[in-house]
Amino acid sequence: MTGADASGTALLDRVTGSNFAYQHLPLARCLDDLAELGRTRMELWGIAPHAHAPWLTDAEARGIRDAAAARGLEIVCFTPEQVMYPVNVASPDARLRAESVRMFRRAAELAVEFGAGLLFLTAGRGGEDEPRSAGWARSVDALGEIADYARSLGLDCVLEPLQRVESNLVNSAADAARMLDDIAAPNLGVALDTVAAVVAGDSVDDYFAVLGNRVQHVHLIDGTPAGHLAWGDGRLPLREIVAALDRNGYAGLATVELFGDGTYALDPKPALARSLAAIAAAGAPPAAGPTPAVDGASAAGAYPAAGTNPAARGRPGQSDPTTT
Predict the structure, then answer these.
(1) What gap in Å lies between CA 188 and CA 157, rounded to an integer?
(2) Is 160 a catalytic site residue?
(3) Which among 253, 236, 251, 223 is positioned nearest to 301, based on CA atoms?
(4) Mean of pLDDT values over 31-50
(5) Active-site annotation holds for 257
(6) Which of 16, 64, 23 is nearest to 40 (CA)?
(7) CA-based nearest residue to 314, from 259, 264, 266
(8) pLDDT, tens digit, for every residue of 306-321?
(9) Domain spanning 11-283: which CATH class is it, in words?
C-alpha cells in the first residue's frame, strides 16, 4: 500500500497539525483549523505568545493541553523555538549557552505538562571564526545534558539537522549520525527535514541508510530547494519522498512546517489544507495514464542523488522566527 507503514496506516493519517505560520494569530484559531482539517495530533511550536518556554507556567501548559484535547487533538511533540531566538546550546558565550540549556530543561518539563512524549532539538551554532570542533564539543555536552534530563522525565528527543545558513555543526545525515554517536543517549533520535536534507545533498534513502530506525520524526515540506513552502509552491518530488518513506518502513509522524516568505502567516489554513491534499494524492496508488501533479516539479532532476549539494539559500522571510 503506497504511503502506508507496515501496519497499513496511511501517511496522511500520521501527519500532525501544528501552529507553524500561526504566530500572528490566536492559538485557539490554530486549534480550530487543525480540528476542521481532520488532524488528531499536534506538534506544538514554542513560539511567543502561544507557548514561549521561558514564560509558560505548568498551569498554562495544562490549559493548552486541555484546549487541544477539547478539539480532539493530542500534543505529541514540543518544539521550542531555538534558531532565530537568542537560544544557542553551542554558543562560545558561556552565559548564552547556560541560558539555552536552562530553556531546554524547562521545555522538557513543559512537554510533560502538554502530555507530549517528544522534545525537538537542534545542535546550535559554533562561532564562525573558531574551529568547528570547539562548537561541536559544546553542542555534545549541552545536548547530552538535555537528553539525559528529558529521559529522567520519561521523554524522547529528536535532533534535526539544519541548513548551513542556520548552523555550522549538524547539516547532513552523516553529521547527525556522528552527533548521536558522540552523545550516546538512548532516548535521542533524528528528525528528517525534507528541505534541510535536499539542501545538504541528502535523499530520504540516504537518511535511512546512515541512520536506520534512528529517524523518528519528519518535517515534510516543499522547497526550491529551500524555503519551507506549502506543497505545490516548490519543486520537491512529494510522491518520490512518500514512496521513499514507505520503502524504508517509516512508521512515525510527519509535520508540515510552513514558513515561506511570511504570506502563509496571513491565513495559514488554505496552505495547510492544500499541503494535506497533496500528501493524500502522493500516497494514493498512481492512476492509469499520465502521473498527476502532486508537487511543484516532476521527479526527474527535482531530488538530489546521494552526494550532490545544491546551492543553499536561506528561507524567504528569514526575519520571521523559524525553527528549521
Answers:
(1) 5
(2) yes
(3) 236
(4) 98
(5) yes
(6) 16
(7) 259
(8) 333 333 333 333 333 3
(9) alpha beta
Distance, CA of 15 to chain centre: 12
Q: What is the pLDDT of residues 289-301, one digit of tens each?
A: 544 444 444 333 3
Reply yes or no on whether the pLDDT at 303 is more than 60.
Answer: no
- The active-site residue out of 113, 160, 166, 240 is 160
In terms of DSSP H, where are the helices of the chain? 27-36, 58-69, 94-114, 132-152, 173-183, 194-200, 204-211, 238-247, 268-283
Report domain extents, the chain.
Answer: 11-283
Name the band, by pLDDT with cuts 50, 70 and 90, for residue 104: very high
Q: Which residues contact 27 (CB under 8 A, 6 or more apart)?
A: 19, 50, 51, 64, 67
- Between 8-22, 120-134, 201-215, the lowest mean confidence (pLDDT) is in 8-22
**What is the secondary structure of 223-246 as a DSSP string?**
-SSSS-B-TTSS---HHHHHHHHH
pTM of this structure? 0.88
* DSSP class per residue in 157-184: EEE----TTT-SS--SHHHHHHHHHHH-
Cell of 215: 529517524
- pLDDT score at 43: 98
